[in-house]
Specification:
Elements lengths: L3 H7 L1 H4 L8 H12 L3 E10 L2 E3 L3 E5 L3 H11 L10 H10 L4 E10 L7 E9 L3 H8 L17 E9 L3 E10 L6 H8 L1 H7 L4 E6 L6 E6 L5 H6 L10 E2 L2 E2 L2 E5 H6 L4 E7 L2
Helix pairs in contact: 7-8
């Protein structure tokens, strides 16, 4: 069976070509891949006004999640003094790790330097009122987050760590059974988009910043089909596939979904 690190090295030209392989944060992250088990490997391709970035590998844990989350929290300290993990540690000291059911830990590489790198730790929780309160009370919460509070919603705390000591929490809400939440999704996303995305295996909603559009994602074995179902323009077919495999998560800003013209979108691909 091929080792996880070997899977990533085989994708070197896609994920960290040239000098990017020298990035110290990448090396630290690869060290975790080499040590851990029960990993899912993925990367995301970000398109913004025609510019493509895909040097964004991640590893995920869906088994023994609290144990893996504890190890990830410990390893955040090893990325160097330029990254401040204290806000992340404080949050989990308050809520604990026991209600986590998915962990994604990745790096976004822009150069060989740690100074141009984003570290991410995104943690999804089972629906628990104490977790929801902690997220809704967090100073980084998005002002519209409360509109999606529901027994059908799972919350994700997405921590982004930037060199220079800036650490922010990004809110994600997910609907693992979107058909059951159709009335809420129609109210917040509009009937046309909600009814199309309700056919998917899951819907994710997040906000890139405090004032911008929500980003709306479909999760599916072939998430690219929602581009066709919505009849949108502007998406280049080659961005939707990796080695002939379709993206399993695809998302774009809500206003662009409504306009049926996408210039900014993200696609996620499973490597293992």
């Amino acid at each position: 069976m091929q080792r996880d690190v070997d899977v990533l090295l085989a994708e070197r030209e896609t994920l960290f070509p040239g000098d990017l392989s020298l990035n110290p944060c990448l090396r630290q992250w690869l060290g975790q891949v080499a040590l851990d088990q029960h990993i899912q490997l993925e990367f995301s391709r970000k398109v913004s006004a025609g510019r493509v970035s895909q040097y964004r590998p991640s590893l995920g844990f869906v088994e023994r999640v609290p144990d893996h989350l504890s190890r990830c929290l410990g390893r955040l300290r090893h990325y160097g003094e330029g990254f401040d993990d204290a806000p992340v540690q404080r949050f989990f000291k308050g809520v604990g790790t026991g209600w986590a059911d998915l962990v994604i830990h990745g790096v976004e590489l822009r150069s060989a330097s740690a100074e141009d790198t984003r570290i991410k730790l995104h943690v999804r929780f089972v629906n628990r009122p104490e977790i929801e309160r902690a997220i809704l009370d967090h100073p980084d919460r998005h002002p519209d987050l409360h509109r999606f509070a529901s027994r059908l919603t799972c919350h994700t705390a997405g921590f982004d760590l930037y060199h220079g000591g800036v650490t922010r929490m990004r809110n994600y809400v997910s609907f693992p059974r979107p058909r059951l939440a159709l009335s809420l999704l129609e109210r917040e996303l509009g009937a046309d988009l909600a009814q199309v995305l309700a056919q998917s295996e899951g819907v994710w909603i997040t906000w890139k910043d405090q004032t911008g559009d929500p980003f709306v994602y479909a999760v599916d074995a072939d998430a690219t089909r929602y581009v066709g179902l919505m009849g949108v323009d502007g998406v280049q077919t080659e961005h939707l596939f990796h080695r002939r495999q379709p993206a399993y998560i695809f998302g774009a800003p809500l206003s662009q979904w409504h306009a049926r013209a996408l210039s900014d979108y993200n696609a996620y691909f499973m490597l293992r």
